[in-house]
Structures are given as structure tokens and as C-alpha cells.
Amino acid sequence: MAEQGGPADLSTKGAYVSGGKEFQRDTNYITTRITADGRDGYPVEPGRYRLVVARACPWANRAIIVRRLLGLEDVLSMGICGPTHDRRSWTFDLDPGGVDPVLGIERIQDAYFARFPGYERGITVPAIVDVPTGQVVTNDYPQITLDLSTQWKQFHRPGAPDLYPEHLRAEIDEVAHRVFTEVNNGVYRCGFAGSQRAYELAYQRLFTALDWLTERLTNQRYLVGDTITEADVRLFTTLARFDPVYHGHFKCNREKLTEMPVLWAYARDLFQTPGFGDTIDFDHIKKHYYVVHTDINPTQIVPSGPDLANWLDPHGRESLGGRPFGDGTPPGPPIPSEVVPAAHGPLGDASRR
To answer: Which parts of the sequence are marked as the site Lowers pKa of active site Cys (predicted)?
Structure first.
């Protein structure tokens, strides 16, 4: 969800740290919604929209996971940007000719400008684009996943889990809010802190929240209730990036995830659940953070470590009970065009050493 500058700036270098200041995330997104009743002018329609993501981005990763768990691949296509971007926007450099085959554009910025000429806010992923007009509909990432669960229900696969059950929504919202402010965004407040004091405050808040999560998850398998919910999706994408990126690159180094037994087992449990680990591209994750954030990694050297094969170690969380998909079933394998290359996963990482 990196935010880029104006169209004249072609540099790959980004400025993410404001000297002497605490990191403040711009959360003013395009709040247009795609709904069953089309209240904002964009009704849910199979094949009409394209979800644009980058596997490197934790915020986009949430949408990838939810779309896959709900089985929406056949009704909502997905365009995948490469792991790095310039200051204008994410680019489709993974596609032949560097052009998205459905939208016919080289960068997601073009879809933003098609609806909002000269759009001055962050050109972010995930974003959903209206294919017939080529215009961005929304980049409001927290609402996107909730709407996939609630507004697209008619098109969920048979056996799709209920990730946002009505009777648990208040608790899910409460937990997800703390996860966002203290953990999802907390790692960025550490990494992009503009002063020692701002960093230390952010560091304390982050690990206080991780300790709270450890306590919460010690005797229950999932964050809310006995099944996977939206809250677990939101925490997982940060945990998956913790040791490869946040521990070193963002100085979140009180402990590695692998040194926090409860959270490490919880993260492995989800990683080994269909729909979670099979969306994680460690190669893209490391390239994005270490190459793009040149103000905190000016050499752009991408670390070789850490060892990632241990993501596949037994987690033992089954002993806590719980039913990952409730009364539903796991999703099938990813569609061929969306399979993460084996070399970018835990086993591929291990084979390189």
C-alpha cells in the first residue's frame, strides 16, 4: 500500500521518513463501494471488476487471501503487480510487455487517473477497477475484504467460510482495530519513525500489543470464536513478514517471530491452512521492502536470510480445538495463473542454501 508521488517523478527511490516526526499513515482512501444493491453505482457483477494487488504488500495480501478463501476467482479477476514500483505507482512488469492483459495498462496509476484526472493522493494497492471503463472504483482496503464477505455472498463457492459472522462482528471489529493501530501499522511506525523518541514509543506499543495477542492466543486457536475470521487474516499478513522484513529492516527487534512461541505456532497454523501460505511470496516481500525503502536501506541490498523452511514445521495448535472453516470446507488449489512460484516459498528458499 505504498504511496507514491506525482507523475513527473520516475525515481524508484521513495521518501518514507519525515525527520523528527512520528509516522502518520494517510488513511483517506476512495470509499466508493461495490455492493449487492449497487448503492454507489457499482453493483456486484461477475466479470465486471478486476482486483489489482501486489504480493509484496500486506494490505493487498489480505484481499488475495479473502478472495481465495471465498472462492471468488471466477467472478473477480486479479491483476498482480511486481514487487517494486517507482514513485508514480505499482507496475505490471510481471506481465508480457509490462501490460495488464485485462486492463491494457502499464501501471495502476492509469486506472486512478481515468476516474480522477491528476489524482493527488496515494496510488495504492489493493484497488478494484471497473473493467468496462478502466476506472478505479475503490482502494479502501479494510472495506474491500468485508464487502467480499458480505456483498459478494451470492457468488461464494460452496463451503466458503463465514469470515465476518454477524454475531461476532463487534468483537472482530474491536480486535481488528487494535491489531491495525498497534501491529499492522505499528511495524511501520517503528520503521518510518523520524526520531529516536518516536521509534521508542512505537516499539513499546508494538510489543505491548504482541504480548496481548500472545496472551489471547495461548488458550484459543483463533482470535475471535473457534473459526478463522477477518481478524485472523489481518494479523497473519503482518506476522508472515515479521522475520523476513520487520525484525531487521523496521528495527522491530525485541524478538523474532520464531522466538515468540505462541504467535509463531499460530502463524504456522494459518500458513499451513489452504488459502494463507499459498498466497505468500517471500521473494516479492523481501525485494519490495529492501529495494523500495531507500531512505532506510540506501544500498538496496536484499538479505539472503532468514531461513524460511521452518514455516512448514508442525504447529500443534490442533490441540486447542477450533474448526478452521467452521461448517465449510478448505478452498481447492490456486488457479494455475495465480500459483506462487515454488522458488519463492519456504522450500524454494531452503533449496537455495
So the answer is: 246, 289
Binding site for glutathione, by residue number, is 90
Query: What is the C-alpha to C-alpha distance for residues 147 and 258, in angstroms, rounded to an integer?
Result: 33
Please report whether residue 306 resides in a domain: yes
Residues in the chain: 353
81 is catalytic: no
- What string of DSSP letters covers 50-118? EEEEETT-HHHHHHHHHHHHHT-TTTSEEEEE-S-B-SS-BB-TTSGGG--TTT--SBTHHHHHHHSTT
Count CB atoms within 10 A of the CB of residue 114. 17
Quote the domain boundaries for residue 322. Answer: 166-351
Return d(Cα 3, Cα 184) in angstroms, integer: 16
Binding residues: 90
pLDDT per residue as tens digits for the range 3-48: 443 333 333 445 666 666 677 777 789 999 999 999 999 999 999 9
**Residues 247/288, Cβ–Cβ less than 8 Å:** no
Does some domain include residue 263? yes
Instruction: Check the CA dihedral 241-181-51-155 and report its sign.
Output: positive
What does pTM read for this prediction? 0.94
Q: Is residue 110 part of a domain?
A: no
Catalytic residue (choose from 188, 199, 266, 290)? 188
CATH number at residue 172: 1.20.1050.10
DSSP string covering 253-317: -SS-GGGSHHHHHHHHHHHTSTTTGGG--HHHHHHHHHHH-TTT-TT-PPP-----GGGGS---G
Q: Is residue 176 part of a domain?
A: yes
CA distances from 327 to 138, 152, 159, 323 (A): 31, 19, 7, 8
Q: Is 119 one of the annotated active-site residues of the chain? A: no
